[in-house]
Please model this.
Amino acid sequence: METNVQARPVAVRLRDPTTIGRIERRRDVLGSAPVIAGTRITVSAVRNFHEAGYSVDAIIEEYPTLTPADVEAALSYDDTAAA
Model:
């Protein structure tokens, strides 16, 4: 786990730490699609990158505001449980 907070992107540092690694659905964000909490990045976008062969690190390069915990949460999110 990274300990140097200053090395992280500003957007990650500005996110509420309690939202890291969580998925949320809000009526006012992307039509209630499941998103990484504190962002507008959809679970489906992260999954599409993963299915295309991107590693967790490669997905974070595409979405620098995400953490490994965010990506893992998106990949393990069960759409059927939240429906």
